[in-house]
């Protein structure tokens, strides 16, 4: 079994207008975890259909449960507000925490 490159480890979401189910094929560890949790919690809405030795999974789920979220970039005003909030509440960037250790 050949190890796949990051480029080859893809995620494919497939559905059409005529069916009520969507298929999600992925190698992404976080998405695999989220789909597994969802299928355990809601087995009538989501099921594991296939796994491969390379590490991919395919889940089939009710299309109405799938959402694609597009997030616009933060405005400079929102970034400044987030920085001020972080400073006020004692947030330290990861780099600063690593330097202390």
Please, could you describe this protein's structure?
This protein has 101 residues and is of the alpha+beta class. The chain has a domain of 54 residues. Helix content is 33%, strand content 21%. The longest helix is centred in the middle third of the chain and has 13 residues. The radius of gyration is 19 Å and the shape is extended. The N and C termini lie far apart (40 Å). The model has no long low-confidence stretch (mean pLDDT 90).
Q: Which word captures the global form?
A: extended
Structural class comes to alpha+beta
Percent helix range? 25-40%
Could you tell me the strand content as a percent range? 15-25%
Instruction: Let me know the average pLDDT.
Output: 90
Low-confidence stretches: none
List the helices and strands in order.
EEHEEHH
Largest sheet: 4 strands, antiparallel
Ends: how far apart? 40 Å
Nearest-angstrom radius of gyration? 19 Å
Itemize the secondary structure elements and their pairings.
Elements: E1 12-14, E2 21-26, H1 29-41, E3 46-51, E4 57-62, H2 76-88, H3 94-100
Antiparallel strand pairs: 1-2, 2-4, 3-4
Short description:
The protein has 101 residues and is of the alpha+beta class. The protein has three helices and four strands; from the N terminus they run ββαββαα. It has a domain of 54 residues.
Give a quick set of tags describing it.
101 residues; alpha+beta; 3 helices; 4 strands
């Amino acid at each position: 079994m050949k190890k796949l490159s990051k480029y080859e480890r893809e995620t494919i979401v497939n559905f059409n207008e005529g069916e009520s189910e969507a298929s999600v094929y992925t190698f992404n560890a976080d998405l695999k975890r989220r789909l597994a949790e969802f299928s355990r919690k809601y087995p009538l809405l989501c099921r594991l259909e296939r796994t491969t030795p390379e590490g991919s999974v395919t889940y089939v789920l009710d299309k109405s449960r799938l959402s694609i979220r597009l997030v616009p970039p933060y405005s400079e005003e929102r970034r400044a507000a987030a920085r001020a909030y972080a400073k006020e509440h004692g947030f330290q960037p990861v780099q600063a925490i690593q330097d202390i250790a």
